[in-house]
Amino acid sequence: MNGTPQYAPVVAHPYALTGTEYDPGRAAGSVAGGDASYGRVVVPGEVDVSHGAILYLEGVTVSFDGFRALNDLNLSVDDGELRCIIGPNGAGKTTMMDVITGKTRPDAGTVYFGQTIDLTRLNEVAIAHAGIGRKFQKPTVFENLTVFENLELALKADKRARASLLAKLDGEQRDRIDAVLATIKLADAAHGPAGRLSHGQKQWLEIGMLLAQEPRVLLLDEPVAGMTDQETAETAELFLSLKGKHTLIVVEHDMDFINTIAGTVTVLHEGHVLAEGDMATVQNDPRVVEVYLGR
Amino acid sequence: MTERRLFSPFGWTLFVIIVALGLAMPLLHVFAPEGHPLHVSAYTLTLVGKILCYAAVALAMDLVWGYAGILSLGHGLFFALGGYAFGMYLMRQIGRDGQYQSDLPDFMVFLDWKDYPWYWAGTDHFLWALVLVIAVPGIVAFVFGWFAFRSRIKGVYFSIITQALTFAAMLLFFRNDTGFGGNNGFTDFKRILGFPVAAPETRAVLFALTVAYVAGILVFCRWLMQSKFGRVLAAIRDAESRTMFVGYDPLPYKLGVWTLSAVLCGIAGALYVPQVGIINPSEMSPANSIEIAIWTAIGGRGTLIGPLLGAGIVNGAKSWFTVSFPDLWLYVLGAMFVIATLFLPRGVMGLLGRKA
Asked: Which residue in B has a C-alpha nearest to residue A18's C-alpha?
């Protein structure tokens, strides 16, 4: 908000995987101090996208009881890109998001955020602070809080317990919330409980929470499921306006929606990338046709 | 709505009136002579003082259950630990006035112990006793909570473990060799800070302190739950994984409110013991802890006022039934819980239709 980075993701994150409270002060300190041996200038709070890619998965494999949800998955997403991921049920789309956000640890493979941040070594909270936001398949908002409070909690800020005790919204933060409310067209519902919103509105609120979080990368799992055609069209418009400023990775089944927004489409099948390219190329790929139309 | 008030003007008025009434009771106990229509008997004062301590426990329970969604079935343990910590001081204050006229408490003489065990060190100092009252339940809760929350133990599994914890502690305290008086616990207190513990003035002061304590923690908890901290707790309760992906680590939030709740229970226990005059391991029985959850559920979870009412209603009914119809009490308690669960999901507060 004020230009100074709040959190400092580094390669060897001091709080990785420990589940203890994330302490940006110590994280930043370790950048300046002990981690010099990495031989690379790591700018605290900045994702190194000098090679173009902001997200880079290589050889990622995840097995659940012998079932390979992800099987040697390779994926590279460029900074500012709007990438669509499609694939039949069980192709591993949600598992891929779980791996990126730290919910699931891969059995093998590497997941990099920019050139320097190894996501497999961070927990969910640290990954969120590093700048990756996620919308769930089933809209998940804080039902008993108001729409305004949902956004307040999502807002980029110091999120440690002690800071929350005395946290007060300043004018700038209120303006930010109001701006998001206007974007997601929920200004009128702002002070009612989020649990009373319609399904489509909850989807929008969750997207709004992502925006308030100001992540570099937005992972959106079926963002237009349950939306009316009108709402879907508005969502497409919103995503196109975010493209460039943020990196968006959208998992969807709605082909019309994908047609409207997509540059590059990646087709997943059995935990592996089956095809990648623009919509026309992908749709005419015989392997994709076979997977979708039967075998 | 963006303007957050602790209570409405009506709420504050009610609050002040009830606290004033609460403070009037001990005054009437001391200054209105016996037989005077306004006299408050020692029995009444003790009974209400005891219920106020329970009310504080119910409020503490509500912090973790109503707001953070963590159902504890072991809160009686923290209450009892606070009570035992202060009870140690009260035992030391007996001095040589015990049955055996020894420097040691009677139960230690009975066990043929020659000296106090190491953990009794310093308990003859009032201030050290106060430190123990806060530190013992606090540390036990912190260590237990740290392991449980870090391992992401939730829901019914967490509840069952807390139940086991208090049960294990009860068995431990039942042993004579543990050094806390075995199944008799601590009783026959004589003095507190040199004042006779049963004197009307002492009772009055203890009662007034309890009123102030309950009023104080009500305001404090209200403030806490209206802070962003309270909203993050509600968020964790409603959708924990969402909270994590938004960037909040649930561990310090849960652990913070859990430890606070235990400390509040411990202080309530310390106020309870000198008023009621006894603490024994039955306070740690699993049934006691379940009853605490019932008070909170009947009063109304997530309301702060509700649990205070719930503790009052259930314990008021209990003291009447156990005198008039002792055989019926457990059926009545069960019926109250079933009715609250089926018809009053938001407890008595839901019935009143206000979220005070």
From this structure: B150
